[in-house]
């Protein structure tokens, strides 16, 4: 799923008021962190991630997290990234 420019702009506007829900620490992009991120995306759809002492550049870390969780990168500003994954429709 790829976001259109209008969708991405609307999500960026929503993300302005969000606090960082997930924090990447010294362990980096560990399986536990990705599981926590997956849970946050399942609950909130739009999640802000604070990249702490990551060895990767922020854009690379954002892409890896998005690929691992099936999310889209909405934006990367400094060491903060915002990810979005649409909730599945209930059956």
Shape: globular
**Helical coverage, percent range:** 40-55%
- Poorly predicted regions are none
- Portion in beta strands: 15-25%
Tally of distinct domains: 1
Element-by-element helix/strand order:
HEHEHEE
CATH class: Alpha Beta
The CATH architecture is 2-Layer Sandwich
Which structural class matches the secondary elements? Answer: alpha+beta
* CATH-defined superfamily: YhbY-like
CATH topological fold name: Translation Initiation Factor IF3
Tell me the number of helical segments per DSSP (H or I, 4 or more residues long).
Answer: 3
What is the topology, as strand order, of the major beta sheet? Answer: 1-2-4-3
Straight-line N-to-C gap: 20 Å
Mind summarizing the main beta sheet? 4 strands, mixed
What would the average pLDDT be, to the nearest integer?
91
Structural description of this entry:
The protein is an alpha+beta fold and about 90 residues long. The chain has one domain: Translation Initiation Factor IF3. It contains 3 helices and 4 strands; from the N terminus they run H-E-H-E-H-E-E. It has helices at about 5-15, 30-45, 60-70, and strands at about 20-25, 45-50, 70-75, 80-85. It has a 4-stranded mixed β-sheet, with helices on both faces. The longest helix has 14 residues, at about 30-45. The radius of gyration is 12 Å and the shape is globular.
Mind sketching the topology for me?
Layout (H helix, E strand, L loop, with lengths): L4 H11 L6 E3 L6 H14 L1 E6 L6 H12 L2 E6 L2 E5 L7
